[in-house]
User: Fold this.
Amino acid sequence: MPVFYECQRCTACCRWPGQVRVTEVEIRRLAEFLGLDEFTFIQRYCRLAADRRGLVLEEKPDGSCVFLEGRDCRVQPVKPQQCRDFPNWWRFPGFEAQCRARPRPLDAETYLRAVAEATGRSLEEVKQRFSDPARAR
Ligand code: SF4
Ligand code: SF4
Assistant:
């Protein structure tokens, strides 16, 4: 039975060291959400990715994401896909030790719908990705 991880909004993943990549479309959406033009948004909130292949969100001096405010994401409705995708679309070995998401075994159809809703991806895309039940664990 596939296991869906239900986020508990502990914000640990907004504090880990690492990079949150942002695409051009996401930058446009984030800038609009904050009432900024794209240039100003990039100047204020982005930096070059370590591999120099695009932009990532800036971090605060303590390493947390520039958009983390207390226990809330300031840009929650338009947060980057990378954020929406964790931990059901991507995760790393041993992530459970740091992420409080609650594991919920679900039947296959409910699982696919839950992943689509959590990630904001289409049901078709989720079905394609997890068409092999062995990957949906
Ligand atoms: S954009 Fe929001 S969800 Fe993503 S890391 Fe920053 S605070 Fe967390
Ligand atoms: S995905 Fe995990 S680490 Fe991130 S906020 Fe949700 S429960 Fe916390």
User: Anything to note?
Assistant: The first strand starts at residue 3 and ends at 6. The two ends are 8 Å apart (CA to CA). The first helix runs from residue 24 to 34. The mean pLDDT is 95.
